[in-house]
Design goal:
One of its GO terms (molecular function) is adenosylmethionine-8-amino-7-oxononanoate transaminase activity. Helices cover 37% and strands 17% of the residues. With 442 residues, it is of the alpha/beta class. The chain is globular and about 70 Å long. The protein binds pyridoxal-5'-phosphate.
């Protein structure tokens, strides 16, 4: 009898259609997580597994934080739900104000969603609404970037740039894509690479092709996560900002991974010193404990849409979710942000990043490692593939790591690390030693 069979019936194992998962492979050899504590997951054999991706880039403050549990429990017995449309509850306004104060410059209007995908849809809908209310309704096209990930909604798979996520469905929204910035010249570069700033100039060609009168926004992750941690070339984002300004195109940063500390700054916008027009966040906002996302927008965007709303009983932006600003999610976010601030986790990431950088780059020269990239507490390894089987070797590496007691992410031809912000140096050492042994076939 297989291990899981003692706990789950065959029909239970069969019933779940797992997301972004090789269902047949998983069900043949399930990796079941039954608990978590701090920087560790616990599997169904009671093994402690170091969480090398902070869940899914979600749990930077470590798992099962009692402060979040208490806030959620209290909220559930105070106000479990409040209708999100036409009525309000204090916590949503308080959290919005807190986020507005954290975000750079005049990014001070907050629209709540439940996920990063919904934030991608919301920010691009807001971009279109903004231009329409500016009297330019033809500005609808969204420009993404190759290898970009913005979630699984129709918007996300249209302006997202990971081929495997797109080919099944075809595009839904008018979009186009800048080139990715993964350049051979930058291989094994530590931190932000030197080459590739000029790739931002492709936006000029997009404007020539589509005309700025038809382009609403550019959306990029300041640092791509899901495609294997692609750090922006120095000055690339600044150039993109300049070009968006020149051509009246809104710039959206998808900070679903980089928001709230991953880069060693509060936002990627701070780390790379560029102010976009909107910032999408999710994941770390509640430390992964309760689903939540948000779009943080600059004041002029809100003002334009709201002021064009007509009679004051009109809904200015006919958009939102039943669970936008859910009280329990707000309570979790408040507690998660308290932890981030009280434990100074963002500066902790900044302080330990050089140590992590040295550690990951010590794997240069190991078998199959064709590139290593890092920034903050994120790192990506490109892995040479078996001929015609790009996804296989990363899976095998992650599988071997799991058996050794380490969870790392595999995707495409990459292995990704996203350490909990609470990681100790000794944990970095054991993780990297295990990676080395694994790559050497030990
Ligand atoms: C940059 C980015 N945007 C959007 C998303 C989608 O978020 P969700 O899975 O919460 O919809 C992700 C998820 O990994 C992401 O990394």
């Amino acid at each position: 009898m297989t291990q899981w069979a003692s706990k789950l019936s065959q029909s239970q194992m069969d019933a779940l259609w797992m997301p972004y998962t090789a269902n047949r492979q998983f069900k043949a050899s399930p990796k079941m997580i039954t608990g978590a504590q701090g920087n560790y997951l616990i599997d169904d054999n009671g093994r402690k597994i170091f969480d090398g991706l902070s869940g899914l880039w979600t749990c930077g403050a470590g798992h099962n934080r009692p402060e979040i549990a208490e806030a959620v429990a209290k909220q559930l017995t105070t106000l479990d739900y409040a209708p999100a449309f036409q009525y309000g509850h204090n916590l949503a306004f308080e959290l919005a104000d807190r986020l507005a104060n954290m975000a750079p410059a005049d990014i001070n209007k907050v629209f709540f969603t439940n996920s990063g995908s919904e934030a991608a849809d919301t920010s691009t809908k807001i971009a279109r609404a903004y231009w329409r209310q500016q009297g330019q309704p033809t500005k609808t096209r969204i420009i993404g970037r190759a290898k970009g990930y913005h979630g699984a909604s129709w918007g996300g798979i249209s302006f997202g740039g990971i081929g495997a996520n797109r080919k099944m469905w075809g595009p839904a929204m008018e979009s186009d894509h800048l080139s990715h910035t993964l350049l051979p010249n930058n291989q094994f570069c530590k931190g932000a690479p030197n080459y590739g700033e000029e790739l931002a100039d492709e936006l000029i060609e997009m404007v020539a092709l589509h005309d700025a009168s038809n382009i609403a926004a550019v959306i990029v992750e300041p640092m791509s996560g899901s495609a294997g941690v692609i750090v922006p070339p120095k000055a690339y984002l600044r150039r993109l900002r300049e070009l968006c300004n020149q051509h009246d195109i809104l710039l959206i940063f998808d900070e679903v991974i980089t928001g709230f500390g991953r880069t060693g700054s509060l936002f990627g916008a701070d780390a790379f010193d560029v102010v976009p027009d909107m910032i999408n966040v999710a994941k770390q906002i509640t430390n992964g404990a309760v689903p939540m996302g948000a779009v943080l927008a600059r004041e002029f965007i809100y003002d334009t849409v709201i002021n064009a709303g007509g009679a004051d009983y009109n809904i200015e932006l006919p958009h939102g979710y039943t669970y936008s600003g859910h009280p329990v999610a707000c309570a979790a976010a408040m507690a998660a942000l308290d932890i981030l601030e009280q434990e100074k986790l963002v500066s902790r990431v900044a302080e330990l990043s050089p140590y992590f950088e040295e550690a990951v780059h010590s794997l240069k020269g190991m078998p199959f490692v064709s590139d290593i990239r890092n920034f903050g507490f994120a790192a990506g390894f490109s892995i040479e593939s078996y001929p015609g089987e790009p996804a296989r070797r990363p899976y095998e590496i992650a599988d071997a790591m799991w058996k050794k007691g380490f969870y790392v992410r595999y995707g495409g031809d990459t292995i990704q690390l996203g350490l909990p912000f609470t990681t100790e140096k000794a944990e970095i050492d054991t993780l990297i030693n295990a990676m080395q042994d694994t790559l050497m076939g030990k």
